[in-house]
Design a protein that fits this description.
Elements lengths: L12 E3 H6 L1 H10 L3 E5 L2 E5 L2 H7 L5 E7 L5 E5 L5 E4 L2 H21 L1 H6 L7 H8 L4 H5 L2 E2 L1
Parallel strand pairs: 1-2, 4-7
Antiparallel strand pairs: 2-3, 4-5, 5-6
Helix pairs in contact: 4-6
Length: 146
């Protein structure tokens, strides 16, 4: 019987001591070549460039579901997260959602233990990261599909 391997499938796992010894080269390799896994004792850490992270998170977009109100404004919610908003037009609704997403993402990270530890919020993590790596509010707006 073959003993079960403890750890990960990725073959090139770098020891934390080696990373510390040559930090500059490690960062250069991660940013310019490929993601890396680092092992310290029994803990593993993944390191990747923002460009690679953007690719990983590409499927995480937001769907606006909305309806017209009696006053001709639009009320909507995001299908993926518990966020609602109201605005005069679809463009204004997207702007409002972008602001709300940025605020929620920042709050999520400020209180990470609370949000990530909550069963109904854990799945929000990749969406939060997708928001946080955007350059500005307009880029967040571009993640919204209506």
């Amino acid at each position: 019987m073959v003993p079960k391997k403890v750890g990960v499938i990725m073959q090139e796992v770098i020891n934390a001591t080696d990373v510390r010894r040559d930090w500059g080269r490690f960062i250069d390799n991660v940013v310019r070549l490929k993601p890396s896994l680092v092992k310290r004792n029994r803990d593993y850490l993944a390191a990747m460039s923002l460009e690679h992270l953007e690719v990983v998170l590409t499927p995480y977009r937001f769907t606006i579901e909305y309806e017209k109100e009696a006053d001709d404004s639009l009320s909507g919610s995001l299908k993926e997260l518990d966020i609602i908003a109201n605005a005069a037009s679809l463009g204004a609704l997207k702007t409002e959602f972008a602001k709300e997403l940025i605020e929620y993402a920042q709050e999520y990270m400020d209180e990470f233990d609370k949000y990530y530890g909550a069963p109904n919020r854990k799945a929000h993590f990749p969406y939060v990261m997708r928001v946080l790596i955007q350059k500005d509010e307009d880029a967040v707006r571009g993640l919204l599909d209506a």
